[in-house]
Amino acid sequence: MAAPLFLGVDGGGTGCRARIEDAAGNPLGAGMGGPATTRLGVPAAMAAVLEACRAAAAEAGLPEAALERCHAGIGLAGVGRRGALEELRALPLPFRSVRFVSDGLAACLGAHGGRDGGIVIAGTGSIGLARVAGAEHRVGGYGFPISDEGSGADLGLRAIRLALRAADGRHPAGALLRAVLERFGGEPTVAVAWMDRASATDYATFAPLVLRHADNGDPDARRTVQDAAEAIDGLARALLERGAPRIALLGGLASAIEAWLAPDVRRRLTPAEGDAVAGALLLAREDAAGS
After folding, report:
1. Exposed, middle or buried by CB within 10 Å (0-12, 13-18, 19+), for 264?
2. Are residues 274 and 250 in contact, defined by beta-carbon separation less than 8 angstroms?
3. What distance in Å separates the CA atoms of residue 215 and residue 222, rounded to the nearest whole number?
4. Which pTM does this prediction carry?
5. What HEC string does 30-49 produce?
6. For 152-266, CATH number?
7. pLDDT tens-digit map of 218-277
8. Which CATH number fits domain 5-113+273-290: 3.40.50.2000, 3.60.130.10, 3.20.20.70, 3.30.420.40?
């Protein structure tokens, strides 16, 4: 039988990444695919995963049939949705073995090299997740706008809400709020029309504006960012209370929000050792060793 290969996949809502390694851990090839979340449907998510896997095999100079030699670990957004895991396991997939986990758990494993620890993701959304003594702990991350406090989308929502109050004369119109209103031509009705179609990603486009004005001392921006930081503090503390010995702060807002976090939280932060693909590869190797 041909030597086994190991495949790690990080499938998220904006795209999918795959990497193939040999038994010694040498990277052979990497590939990209389209959005891979079960919110788009399991068939669409797996089509993106397979697209990335085929691209990784091609970069490695391997035929597509080499995927049959791969022990695969696949971190996939939305894997916890009702019925998703059962549907995924029922698919005819080309791998020697396959294990599905959430993209968050894959990121957590990668961040700490498979050891116990937690992550707080501060990006378009937010979530806290840890693995401690084999148990998975999740806090927050139930989706915008009902959750995801401290995220880019949440920053945008709060800034727009204040800007509309300022437009009504119910709040002083400082530099941040004037800048937000300018995005809508100074017309609240334009903001309302935008809201009808806006996604969390659209709201998150306002986060850099809020952070920039906070750095410049705008009081509304500073309060908004401080509230976001307190929400991130809360996610981190909840994981520490559940036994996580260390926390890695990840996501597009991580570097900007870290300076605003409470000292006790900042002291417990550690740099991520690896990414979600590395975490998925750890799972693939774990399964291969147990088979």
Report:
1. exposed
2. no
3. 8
4. 0.86
5. EEEECCCEHHHCHHHHHHHH
6. 3.30.420.40
7. 999 999 999 999 999 999 999 999 999 999 999 999 999 999 999 999 999 999 999 999
8. 3.30.420.40
